[in-house]
UniProtKB/TrEMBL annotation:
Residues 157-227 form the Co-chaperone DjlA N-terminal domain. This is TerB family tellurite resistance protein. The lineage of its organism: Bacteria, Bacillati, Actinomycetota, Actinomycetes, Kitasatosporales. It holds the Pfam family TerB.
Length: 235
């Protein structure tokens, strides 16, 4: 014999927005409804007195689980992939600006790195053209960059901590870092190190860029130094 529920609280939900998010329970990208609720005391199933509002919550369209708005802080898989591609691209440009492009080995390594990150159509000409455009913005580079010779006039390469390009490194890497495992953050730094080492040892400007990259990726200075030293040592 079932007992009748005489009194209870029922929530009436109202959808106020929708979108796509990474569902923690599903483990993948899903659509969501952003909903707010009105709680009411019910007697014999009939809603009577208001008991206040609840939410807002995100309701997954697949599993129907409810999550706090902080679930939107986790990028979707599509967005995460785009952030990773942009991070590699920005690191590559910063290192080319710092070390120049006179070395064929550096140019080839840079193109291969960007292509492997997802920009499969990237070409050497595209990178050189973009570098020349960056050089035209005096707020980005400390000297005049020559995309043909890979040299700088008036200064010795990139001043990574005082330019807009360094700011772009932070803007690109800092939002990504919390969503990467330690090995993922180290991998990004090492990809940059391989570009810098393609023509020999690190130049001071390249090393400064890589130190900036390590900091933006939330790596400890000692770990950044360890990784850069290991990358320089033949296996």
């Amino acid at each position: 014999m079932h007992k009748m529920c005489v009194m209870g609280v029922r929530t009436s939900w109202r959808t106020v927005a929708d979108g796509e998010f990474f569902c923690p329970d599903c483990g993948g990208d899903r659509n969501y409804l952003r909903r707010t609720g009105q709680r009411r005391l019910t007697v014999l199933g009939v809603p009577l007195l208001s008991r206040g509002v609840t939410g807002p919550v995100l309701e997954c369209s697949a599993c129907h689980g409810h999550f706090g708005l902080d679930a939107l802080d986790h990028p979707t898989t599509v967005r995460f992939s785009a952030m990773l591609r942009e991070a590699v691209h920005t690191i590559t440009l910063a290192l080319l600006a710092a070390g120049g492009t006179s070395s064929r080995a550096v140019r080839d390594t840079a193109v291969d790195t960007v292509r492997a990150a997802g920009f499969t159509d990237c070409s050497e000409d595209q990178l050189l053209t973009l570098l020349a455009a960056l050089a035209a913005d005096t707020g980005r580079l400390t000297g005049t960059y020559d995309a043909v010779t890979g040299g700088h006039c008036g200064h010795h390469g990139l001043d990574p901590c005082g330019t807009a390009l360094a700011i772009e490194l932070h803007e690109s890497l800092e939002p990504l870092a919390p969503h990467l495992a330690p090995a993922g953050r180290e991998s990004l730094l090492l990809q940059g190190a391989r570009i810098a080492l393609a023509d020999g040892s690190y130049t001071p400007a390249e090393r400064e860029v890589l130190t900036t990259v390590g900091g933006a990726l939330m790596l400890r200075p000692a770990d950044t130094e360890r990784l850069l030293t290991a990358a320089r040592t033949p296996s």
